[in-house]
Amino acid sequence: MKAWEATVRKTQAVAKKRANSIFGTTYVAHVEDDDDDREDDESHANGRAVHEIYHADRVLSNGDYYTGEWADNFPHGRGKYLWTDGCMYVGEWFRGKTMGKGRFIWPSGVTYEGEFKGGYMDGQGTYTGSNGETYRGCWVMNLKHGHGVKDYANGDCFDGEWCRGLQEGHGKYQWKSGNHYVGEWKNGVICGKGKLYWINGNMYDGYWEDGLPKGNGTFRWPNGSFYVGNWSKDPREQNGTYYPSGSSPEENFEWDPQEVFNVDLGECKVCPGEKVSILPSQKKLAVWRSSKAVDSGIRPRRMSVDGRLDAGVDKEFNRMRMLEGAGAGAATWDAFDRNLMDDGFGRSRQEDGITRGSPIRIPKAVRRQGVTISKGHKNYELMLNLQLGIRHSVGRPGPAASLDLKASAFDAKEKVWTRFPPEGSKYTPPHQSCEFRWKDYCPLVFRTLRKLFKVDAADYMISICGNDALRELSSPGKSGSFFYLTHDDRYMIKTMKKAEVKVLLRMLSAYYSHVRAFENTLVTKFYGLHCVKLNGPAQKKVRFIIMGNLFCSEYTIHRRFDLKGSSLGRMTDKSEAEIDATTILKDLDLNFIFRLQKTWFQEFRRQIDRDCEFLEQERIMDYSLLVGLHFRETTNAGDLIPPGARTPIEDGDPETESVPRLSRADMDQLLLDPAGWASIRLGVNMPARVERTERKNDCEFQLVGEPTGEYYDVVMFFGVIDILQDYDITKKLEHAYKSIQYDPTSISAVDPKQYSRRFRDFVLKIFAEDT
Question: What is the pTM of this model?
Fold first, then answer.
């Protein structure tokens, strides 16, 4: 270990010199080696053991000051840390991180007093701004999240639910004037159903959108008269009926509803909150640690509170990667990894019948999925037909889509046939393909679904019908369906059987209601259902559905899992060396537990319950949870790097460099950037951790392995797919036949109620709260 530490010190100097030339020079507050040695000598002289906690006063070389409990070169216990810029923290520490109860004070006089977790304001706490505003309530990773009460500097007050720093859910906003609103919020603005009471006795009860009345609503006066109708800022969309009370002879029958927008709502503006200039988790902790690089005149990089190197906090989140040099550096890392895995005598560790596996490797380069459909491909004409049809369907003018659809829109007979002759027609353009007919199923419903999912029509057509060709996946799925990807990976097109089309049309109304009610639903998003009928003797029909691609991301998906909660046939036949980024792994291949941050995990549990209940009611079974993992920190050799580990680099190689991993400051920047919030939602772009698991040797079909305590930082993607298989006679026969040969609980084909219960139980075993 001493030899390894010496190698690390030497190689870090080269890495830092290289990193500084790329990312700009940053530094770490340090003390000289002789000071460190002197501290060690004092520890030995005083008889202190490793990990012993003792009181210490530290004036660090960069001017920071710490006094309090100390252990192993880190604040640990209760202590006070004063930064040179005037920021101060007083409270509990855990190995260099603010953890527990404490108080953070900014130079401007802003204070936060409450709970901390891992350097973040997290838990219950009170924030007092420099302008006098206060917030008392729940925090998660520096953001207001949960129930809280905020008193604004102008005298307004909000009492209700927050989500990622903004009002979301149910809440009451009281203006200083006495007016108040009680109802639903979304992204910091009034949105949904709610009531606004004016101090003069007027009241509006109805729906809101972007802080204004929108949709059905009623405006009431104190004398009992009221106005009922459809509300909109646009006078052309405003319509309704005025009902006088009859008790007052001077009632105004000519009242204009636009007065509510122009006059009554003029004083009812939500006050913006004060922005924090720097967050506690962005404050760097000067580390009391030796550095050989000082002797060579090279300043090492500054270390964040959690001990991770930080080189350039302005780098974008999606560009942060961890690379490692090859050669001797790689060999050093392998030796270090073996030291973690072995018992000290070169043997693989085995505890309680659990064998610790070899290091997990991911491919260095990931090839793009699918084969481009170019001229000469057997499905080239089918692709042209598909693109022509979608361009016609989406581009065709239609009525303004309202989210409130009539029952007739969901009728299975609601479909439109269009003929596409090669020479063109009054409604279709000329084309080079053969003649075909195009069918649109429930066009108004899918147009409205695209609006609900915030899909822009022009972008939708460009993705599917642009100059770039589609890509066909190399092999069809188990069902015999073929899959096609758009050039930008945003959409996936799947060919369907007639039975699947019938199932979707049968459940379309319930599906629409479900995805409209639950914005964070994990079920597949459907954008269009179509059919191409080729003219000729065969009269071939090709039905297909357009879906969102769950793995459309700037991140490389390193691992993919298709999980059902059953064990029969749920293992890939590939070895670890043969597995690449496109391999779909199954239940018995799963070697991780997915750990989500507390509020995300709670939302995940609620949503998986809702989705399973919906699928059970629709008699759907055999669906899966598709999970994709992007590992944030890997080496060039493809090894995963556990958090907190240092990656040695080959000494003297100017080409090797250490690209910084995601720092805490970058995470803060991501969370506080509204664009970053938009990119993170349940199941999409979710920062999380995974804990590696290992199965016991005597349990051949153990679904969930034993946790090993080995964690990795990941970005997660997940969703429920294959939701069009009902429990028909084929599945009933499959269940009866396989139940004779195998354990009935291990097979996929089971009753929807049993399937839902088993699926839910399994998913909640492999997902857990990150504590």
Answer: 0.60
